[in-house]
Amino acid sequence: MQNNATESETPAERETREQATAAQLRESHPRSMFKAVSWRIIGTLDTIGISFLWTGHASKALAIGGSEVVTKVLLYYIHERVWAKVPLGTVRKHNPFASPDQASDQPLRDSNLRSFLKAISWRIVGTIDTILVSYFWTRDTNKALMIGATDVLTKILLYYLHERAWSRIPLGTIRRIFRSKDTAA
């Protein structure tokens, strides 16, 4: 059902409005936090391994990885909130049995392109943080840059896989919660 304000909209205007609304409503703050924590566990283990590889010191590797837990959870949460407002790369699930009118009612999901773009944008932020934290603990520019460079290679793949896994988990997707209440009524 549409209200009177949206009955005069063209299909393109409706799609634009729905994408903007979906971008604002599809990911809850708790979902962003769960994603931040799950990614940080994966990312920290990877950073510790990379740091040990380049420094040869378990204590420095653990210090770098431990420091990043704090900085990266905050940075990742902010990254997720920014992307929650950007509709770029959201697509509707395809239902071959849906009529053209019902097609716009299908839930939105992240496309492969969106996951890839998020991986790149996060990696830029994450790599800068890794280099700065690594330098803080090693006081060695070359080691910090090598840790950061290796981090780029491993983390883009790991982050992409993390995003694809989370795109399949409905936990904290506000739109789906409201939709299930509407269909039950």
Describe the secondary-structure layout.
Elements: H1 4-7, H2 11-25, H3 29-55, H4 58-84, E1 90-92, H5 100-103, E2 108-110, H6 112-138, H7 141-166, H8 174-184
Antiparallel strand pairs: 1-2
Keywords for this structure?
single chain, 185 residues, mainly alpha, 76% helix, elongated, disordered N terminus, disordered C terminus
Q: Any overview of this molecule?
A:
- By secondary structure, the protein is mostly helical.
- Helices cover 76% and strands 3% of the residues.
- The protein contains 8 helices and 2 strands.
- A two-stranded antiparallel ribbon has the order 1-2.
- The longest helix is centred in the N-terminal third of the chain and has 27 residues.
- It is elongated.
- The N terminus and C terminus are likely disordered.
Kindly summarize this structure in a few lines:
The chain has 185 residues and is mainly alpha-helical. It is built from eight helices and two strands.
Regions with pLDDT < 50 over 5+ consecutive residues? 1-5, 175-185
Tertiary shape: elongated
Number of strands: 2
What's the structural domain tally?
1
Strand order of the largest sheet: 1-2
Order of helices and strands: HHHHEHEHHH
Secondary-structure-based class equals: mainly alpha
- Count of helical stretches: 8
Give the biggest sheet. Answer: 2 strands, antiparallel
Based on CA atoms alone, the radius of gyration comes out at 20 Å
Q: Note the gap between the termini.
A: 13 Å
Estimated share of beta-strand residues = under 5%
Which percent bin holds the helix content?
A: over 70%
Overall pLDDT metric: 80
